[in-house]
Amino acid sequence: MHPTWRKSTRSNASSGNCVEVRGDLAAVRDSKNPGGPQLAVEPGALAALLRAVKADQLG
To answer: What integer pLDDT is reported at residue 1 of this predicted model?
Structure first.
């Protein structure tokens, strides 16, 4: 069974700069290199990171 990856709705499809997420594992990968490395974190940690990004709290 292959995991289902989703692209961010804010990704820039015309430039190919996309981030994809996989909800069952809280994993992130680069859509230009789907066979490359994946960042897997605890679901709560990914949620906290996304909240910080949305709130522009990363320096």
So the answer is: 61
Listed in sequence order, the residues at least 6 apart from 10 whose beta carbon sits closer than 8 Å to its beta carbon are none
Q: Maximum Cα–Cα distance for the chain, whole Å?
A: 39
DSSP 47: H
- Beta carbons of 2 and 17 less than 8 angstroms apart: no
Q: How far apart are CA 22 and CA 25, in angstroms?
A: 6
- What are the boundaries of each domain within the chain? 6-54
Q: How far apart are CA 23 and CA 47, in angstroms?
A: 11
In angstroms, the CA 32 to CA 19 distance is 9
| Model pLDDT for residues 4-59, shown as the tens digit of each residue | 888 877 776 676 677 777 766 777 888 888 889 988 888 888 889 889 999 999 87
